[in-house]
Design a protein that fits this description.
The protein has a 7-stranded mixed beta sheet. The N and C termini lie far apart (64 Å). Helices cover 42% and strands 24% of the residues. It is α+β, with helices and mostly antiparallel strands. It has a single domain, classed as FAS1 domain, CATH 2.30.180. It is globular, with a radius of gyration of 17 Å.
Protein backbone atom coordinates (compact mmCIF):
# COMPACT_ATOMS: atom_id res chain seq x y z
CA UNK A 1 0.00 0.00 0.00
CA UNK A 2 2.82 2.39 0.91
CA UNK A 3 4.55 1.66 -2.43
CA UNK A 4 1.30 2.35 -4.30
CA UNK A 5 0.89 5.67 -2.50
CA UNK A 6 4.47 6.71 -3.27
CA UNK A 7 4.09 5.66 -6.90
CA UNK A 8 0.86 7.66 -7.16
CA UNK A 9 2.47 10.77 -5.68
CA UNK A 10 5.46 10.44 -8.02
CA UNK A 11 3.18 9.95 -11.04
CA UNK A 12 1.18 13.03 -10.07
CA UNK A 13 4.38 15.05 -9.69
CA UNK A 14 5.55 13.98 -13.15
CA UNK A 15 2.16 14.83 -14.66
CA UNK A 16 2.12 18.27 -13.05
CA UNK A 17 5.68 19.08 -14.11
CA UNK A 18 4.93 17.87 -17.64
CA UNK A 19 2.07 20.36 -17.88
CA UNK A 20 4.00 23.30 -16.45
CA UNK A 21 5.52 24.93 -19.54
CA UNK A 22 6.41 28.56 -20.04
CA UNK A 23 5.41 30.64 -23.09
CA UNK A 24 8.53 29.64 -25.07
CA UNK A 25 8.28 25.89 -24.35
CA UNK A 26 4.54 25.95 -25.09
CA UNK A 27 5.09 27.70 -28.44
CA UNK A 28 7.96 25.38 -29.42
CA UNK A 29 5.90 22.35 -28.40
CA UNK A 30 3.02 23.46 -30.64
CA UNK A 31 5.29 22.95 -33.67
CA UNK A 32 4.09 25.85 -35.86
CA UNK A 33 6.15 28.63 -34.28
CA UNK A 34 9.66 27.67 -35.43
CA UNK A 35 10.35 31.07 -37.03
CA UNK A 36 9.08 32.86 -33.92
CA UNK A 37 11.37 30.74 -31.75
CA UNK A 38 14.33 31.52 -34.03
CA UNK A 39 13.51 35.23 -33.89
CA UNK A 40 13.18 35.19 -30.08
CA UNK A 41 16.62 33.58 -29.88
CA UNK A 42 18.15 36.13 -32.28
CA UNK A 43 16.66 38.98 -30.23
CA UNK A 44 17.80 37.52 -26.91
CA UNK A 45 14.21 37.33 -25.62
CA UNK A 46 14.03 33.63 -24.72
CA UNK A 47 14.93 34.21 -21.06
CA UNK A 48 12.46 37.09 -20.80
CA UNK A 49 9.54 34.97 -22.02
CA UNK A 50 10.65 32.11 -19.81
CA UNK A 51 10.45 34.55 -16.88
CA UNK A 52 7.75 34.99 -14.26
CA UNK A 53 5.36 37.07 -16.38
CA UNK A 54 2.50 36.91 -16.76
CA UNK A 55 2.53 37.68 -20.48
CA UNK A 56 -0.04 37.65 -23.24
CA UNK A 57 1.66 36.85 -26.54
CA UNK A 58 0.04 37.37 -29.93
CA UNK A 59 2.12 34.73 -31.69
CA UNK A 60 2.49 34.71 -35.47
CA UNK A 61 2.69 31.23 -36.98
CA UNK A 62 5.36 30.08 -39.41
CA UNK A 63 2.79 30.78 -42.16
CA UNK A 64 2.45 34.35 -40.88
CA UNK A 65 6.22 34.85 -41.05
CA UNK A 66 6.18 33.35 -44.57
CA UNK A 67 4.05 36.34 -45.69
CA UNK A 68 7.00 38.64 -44.89
CA UNK A 69 9.29 38.92 -47.95
CA UNK A 70 12.38 36.76 -47.35
CA UNK A 71 14.83 39.65 -47.80
CA UNK A 72 12.88 41.74 -45.24
CA UNK A 73 12.73 38.85 -42.76
CA UNK A 74 16.45 38.11 -43.17
CA UNK A 75 17.27 41.81 -42.60
CA UNK A 76 15.00 41.90 -39.55
CA UNK A 77 16.66 38.82 -38.05
CA UNK A 78 20.06 40.54 -38.39
CA UNK A 79 18.92 43.84 -36.80
CA UNK A 80 18.61 42.96 -33.10
CA UNK A 81 17.17 46.34 -32.04
CA UNK A 82 14.44 46.35 -34.70
CA UNK A 83 13.73 42.64 -34.19
CA UNK A 84 13.35 43.18 -30.44
CA UNK A 85 10.95 46.07 -31.08
CA UNK A 86 8.83 43.98 -33.45
CA UNK A 87 8.72 40.94 -31.15
CA UNK A 88 7.97 42.88 -27.96
CA UNK A 89 5.16 44.62 -29.88
CA UNK A 90 3.49 41.17 -29.93
CA UNK A 91 3.56 40.97 -26.11
CA UNK A 92 1.18 42.57 -23.61
CA UNK A 93 1.85 42.53 -19.86
CA UNK A 94 -0.57 40.35 -17.89
CA UNK A 95 -2.58 37.26 -18.74
CA UNK A 96 -5.50 38.28 -20.96
CA UNK A 97 -7.79 35.38 -21.80
CA UNK A 98 -10.06 35.54 -24.88
CA UNK A 99 -13.17 36.15 -22.75
CA UNK A 100 -11.49 39.25 -21.26
CA UNK A 101 -10.51 40.85 -24.59
CA UNK A 102 -12.14 44.21 -25.27
CA UNK A 103 -11.90 46.43 -28.32
CA UNK A 104 -9.56 49.39 -27.96
CA UNK A 105 -5.91 50.28 -27.52
CA UNK A 106 -3.58 48.09 -25.48
CA UNK A 107 -0.04 49.04 -24.46
CA UNK A 108 2.60 46.49 -25.43
CA UNK A 109 5.88 45.59 -23.76
CA UNK A 110 7.56 47.45 -26.67
CA UNK A 111 5.84 50.66 -25.50
CA UNK A 112 3.50 51.33 -28.43
CA UNK A 113 -0.19 50.55 -28.46
CA UNK A 114 -1.90 47.73 -30.36
CA UNK A 115 -5.42 48.23 -31.67
CA UNK A 116 -7.77 45.40 -30.76
CA UNK A 117 -11.02 45.14 -32.72
CA UNK A 118 -13.77 42.62 -32.04
CA UNK A 119 -16.16 43.18 -34.96
CA UNK A 120 -16.33 40.11 -37.20
CA UNK A 121 -13.74 38.23 -35.15
CA UNK A 122 -10.85 39.49 -33.08
CA UNK A 123 -8.09 41.43 -34.80
CA UNK A 124 -4.81 42.72 -33.41
CA UNK A 125 -3.91 45.65 -35.66
CA UNK A 126 -4.46 44.01 -39.09
CA UNK A 127 -3.80 40.41 -37.94
CA UNK A 128 -6.63 37.98 -37.34
CA UNK A 129 -6.62 35.98 -34.12
CA UNK A 130 -7.03 32.41 -35.34
CA UNK A 131 -6.65 30.47 -32.07
CA UNK A 132 -7.01 31.61 -28.48
CA UNK A 133 -6.16 30.69 -24.93
CA UNK A 134 -3.12 28.46 -25.31
CA UNK A 135 -2.27 28.54 -21.63
CA UNK A 136 1.31 28.49 -20.32
CA UNK A 137 2.41 28.66 -16.72
CA UNK A 138 3.56 32.28 -17.15
CA UNK A 139 0.82 33.59 -19.43
CA UNK A 140 -1.24 32.86 -22.50
CA UNK A 141 -0.71 32.68 -26.26
CA UNK A 142 -3.21 33.82 -28.88
CA UNK A 143 -2.26 32.77 -32.42
CA UNK A 144 -2.34 35.39 -35.19
CA UNK A 145 -2.11 35.04 -38.96
CA UNK A 146 0.27 37.95 -39.67
CA UNK A 147 3.34 39.56 -38.20
CA UNK A 148 2.39 42.94 -36.74
CA UNK A 149 4.80 45.86 -37.00
CA UNK A 150 4.88 48.81 -34.60
CA UNK A 151 3.97 52.15 -36.15
Amino acid sequence: MKKLLIASVLALGVAVSAQAKDIVDTAVGAGNFKTLATALGAAGLIDTLKGKGPFTVFAPTDEAFAKVPKADLDALLKDKAKLTAVLTYHVVPGKVMAKDVKAGKVKTVQGSELTISTTGGVKVDAANVIKTDIVADNGVIHVIDSVIIPK
